[in-house]
Amino acid sequence: MSAPRAFILGHPVAHSRSPMLHGYWLEHYGIDGSYEHVDVAPEALAAFFAGYRDVGWAGGNVTVPHKLAVMPHLDRIDDAASQLGAVNTLWWEDGTLVGGNTDWIGFIGNLDELAPGWDGGAKRAVLLGAGGATRAAIYGLLKRGMSVALCNRTVSKADELARHFGQGVTAHGFDALPDLMAQASLLANTTSLGMVKQPPLEIDLSPLPADAVVNDVVYTPLETGLLRAARARDLRAVDGLGMLLHQAVEGFRHWFGRTPEVTSGLRKLLVDDIRARTPAA
Fold this sequence. Notes:
By secondary structure, the chain is of the alpha/beta class. The protein is built from twelve helices and twelve strands.
């Protein structure tokens, strides 16, 4: 039997850190397998899937611009991918090609690792944003029994998400943020604000309770302005790198038959790479 091969599918895709991440696990566990960049332009996607079985892929990850476009080529889509409207992981189940979304696992796993007990207490979360990362966060938070308040500058986008997910999710403008934060056990930024080459995210964290957790899905830079502000208030602050690490666990398990651990060694590998590529971090 040939060694299992997995991939990161996108266009462009050379910048992806996923091969570094999965390569670390393959070496760490002594697994004979590979994880490769696969750059496929949108017009070539159908041809890629036409030859998918012949190539013998064990599965892979999917990134922009294909997270929605891959769906017609799959045999089944799991509940998370259906709810989130995007596929980020492919694997086989009894000869069936399945598309799933593990971003919500990454979001929750990151919080579990770096802020144990974050989902106790008030169980109220405030999310900034209304994009793909927001969807993943909502899905995971609802599974943990949290109520979710969405704050977005365009309230109609937040309202659309609230209606999509239903009970437990409400939509608000940024003017409601102080009152919402006063009742929050978790504040999470799921926008690109604060990322390198993006505008900063400037909010006053003073309404947050002293035991609240602040999370930023941004990880370039590793310490955003939001996280610095949280630490200045002695709040628990969780960066976004762990979301990338934890979302990868399920895919690796499907492709290579081993559930990998997110370790300090893996984190250091990616931290060093991020700092080398983004000196401001």
